[in-house]
Amino acid sequence: MEMVFRWFGSGNDAVQLDQIKQIPGVEGIVWALHDIPVGDEWPINRIAEVKQQADEHGFHIDVVESVNIHEDIKLGLPTRDKYIANYKATIKNLASVGVKVICYNFMPVFDWTRTELYKKLDDGSTAMFYEKAKVENMDPMELVDEISNNPDFTIPGWEPERLKSLANLFGAYQKVSEEDLWNNLKYFLEEIIPVAEANGIKMAIHPDDPPWKIFGLPRIITSQPNIRRFLQLVDSPSNGITLCSGSLGTDPNNDIPDMVHEFIDRIPFAHIRNLKRYDNGDFIETSHRTKDGSVDIYEILKAYYDNGFTGYVRPDHGRHLWNEKCRPGYGLYDRAMGIMYLWGIWDSLERSVNEKELAVLDKKLDY
Ligand code: CS2
Ligand code: MN
């Protein structure tokens, strides 16, 4: 596996590149141009700027997260073709500086959804929390107020500008069923995957978070059968997934190690994080350690290891520790510790296999 770390850009992230540099084994940053309005082409000079900053720190910029999808594409409106043309241009621009993987998602209106961004845990740290009953009974506008009015940073997927017309957006989705969303996704993929193929790019869709319907909006990248269906929409190595253990792990029916085994050839990018599920459907994000949450991080890494995984991996959301001021889920410390936990498991998997092989060899030599 190749370790990478998400960075929101200079002036847009409390975490600095020289801090990331001190985390063992990180080779690249996962980045995006967060200020470009969704649907616009990413200008080459702005892309080059990030490449330059990464180069100065010896990081690669192979992975982009996310090039977000304009709502008109998800809605299947006639105007989608203009945005798809921009998307293709962005793919080409990114490929021209050496980008290999583009992460994106196909969730209507919102990105990840939580009811509390900084919920206090028993150890005094804070983490993102989802209260199921609250989401079921709340007006989405309340959530938008809470999440998008974060004073320090705008949050991808919760841009106040875009969500100003929330009522219109919800109105437009009234007519869009799950099957329509599948069709709109297929239309998009049929257009862009050939461009990705021609430019050596792997597209990697991120699962829906949480992987169920919220506020009556359809969600489809939610489960193993649905991911199987997704991969068949366009059967190409350039049509892949970002396997996010945290998003899929909120549903106890999702067997993530099994998904790793089944989809391994189509996973260019892995997100690894843990969370604790409660019986009432609530969940809270935890440290990466298997014992701290409901997701078996050890088994997931073992599945990647056993399949000879060479793709990109990043620690996903972490807790906020030691009073750090940071983007929700994206502090420095817990993600850095998460990386060391992942390396600890990976290195010992590697060792134990090598040692077993050596023992077999020794035995052979004895005879
Ligand atoms: C989240 C998302 O789970 C995650 O990684 O932080 O914001 C994610 O970046 C997007 O859904 C990917 O498009
Ligand atoms: Mn993720």
Count the helices. How many?
Answer: 14
Strand order of the largest sheet: 1-2-3-4-7-8-9-12
Q: Count the strands? A: 12
Distance between the termini: 37 Å
Anisotropy-based shape: globular
The topology string of helices and strands comes to EHEHEHHEEEHHHHHEHEHHEEEHEH
Number of domains: 1
Structural class: alpha/beta
Helix content: 40-55%
CATH topology tier name? TIM Barrel
Give the mean pLDDT: 95
Radius of gyration from CA coordinates: 20 Å
CATH architecture classification: Alpha-Beta Barrel
Give an overview in words.
- The chain has 367 residues and is an alpha/beta fold.
- It has a single domain, classed as TIM Barrel (Alpha-Beta Barrel), CATH 3.20.20.
- It contains 14 helices and twelve strands.
- The chain has helices at 17-20, 44-56, 71-75, 80-96, 132-137, 140-148, 160-163, 166-173, 178-198, 224-233, 245-248, 256-263, 297-306, 333-366, and strands spanning 2-6, 26-31, 60-65, 101-105, 116-120, 126-130, 202-206, 239-244, 269-272, 275-277, 283-285, 312-315.
- The strands form two sheets. Strands 1-2-3-4-7-8-9-12 form an eight-stranded parallel β-barrel.
- Strand 2, helix 2 and strand 3 form a beta-alpha-beta unit.
- The radius of gyration is 20 Å and the shape is globular.
- It binds D-mannonic acid (CS2) and manganese (II) ion.
- Residues 65-66, 103-105, 111-112, 156-157, 206, 209, 244, 246-247, 271, 316 line the site of D-mannonic acid.
